[in-house]
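>> received
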Amino acid sequence: MNLGHNDPEEKHISFISPLFILPQYQDQGMGYKAIQAAFELYPEVKEWILETILQEPRNCHLYEKCGFVRFGGEEVVNDKMTLITYRLERNAPSKEG
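>> returned
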């Protein structure tokens, strides 16, 4: 999984791009755990964004299970691939102790 910011100065919006799980490790909750770990590593991030392929229902299921919701339109790449965007808005943790 690759995590990043389009603007190095903007730390409240982050992007997740390709998340790959080897076939022998799929359906074991590793993708879910990886995304949850990203949330823990970057608690200051208020908005997470990612793109995935509409024709990959397992990807869509994972992201929705993690709380992401679809937004924006669809980008048809070809007759077998349509890109969709997901977003998850989170409240940053309180600084009060």
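>> The CA atoms of residues 9 and 68 lie 24 Å apart.
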